[in-house]
Design brief:
By secondary structure, the protein is an alpha/beta fold. It contains eight helices and seven strands; from the N terminus they run αββααββααβαβααβ. The longest helix has 19 residues. It is globular and about 50 Å long. The chain starts with a helix and ends with a strand. About 40% of the residues are buried. It holds the Pfam family Isochorismatase. This is Isochorismatase-like domain-containing protein. Belongs to the isochorismatase family. It comes from Deinandra increscens subsp. villosa.
Amino acid sequence: MVVHALEILKKEIPVEEEQVCIPEDVKTGLVLVDIINGFCTTGAGNLAPREPNNQILEMIDESVKLSRVFCENKWPILAFLDTHKPGKLEHPYPSHCLAGSHESNLVPALQWLENEPNVTIRRKDCYDGYIGSIEEDGSNVFVDWVKNNNIQTLLVVGVCTDICVLDFVCSTLSARNRGFLAPLKDVVVYSRGCATFDFPESAARETKDALTHPQEIMHHMGLYMAKGRGAKIARDVSFGALKK
């Protein structure tokens, strides 16, 4: 049933993916969205996968590869980590990624980033990293990061494609269009570097307030919506020679 629905979606609302080559003289920043234990490590929490998941495992692998390229070149990385205060729920989801818990930390394959000088870690308590970057004085950690690093192209990976990744991308594109993020020009979402969760209809039926969430369909929809807001969707990402 899900496979058939996915085939219909891909036919009726296809997502055109690109091979994106980013010139080395275009200042590029990498954003990692919520690649943490509570969403990605098997059995790590209420919203973690119950068993190993191929889409999530590929997302982690691709994110690690990109992170190593960026760190080797000392290019800027911003990692959002979903982190919530106890008792402050995020409806309709159960308690997850509590501050100070193992759930709210980077997955083991990315924990080395915490010691890299080009990496900025931002804990957030909402879906949208752009909103989650607002400080009490009205400043914005993400906006400052873009401006201080003169970022022209943003490369986005992480989870969930259709939730936190999409919300962040939409807000970022709106802010760029309003002129709040100069010199940012392009936002690239790397499809194989993104993933979402799988919650079939049979499980949702037995869980109060839960919504059905077929993984492949919602991943496709997240990419489609991001492209509709103006993001580039990349099936492959490479870094080219300097512009002439």
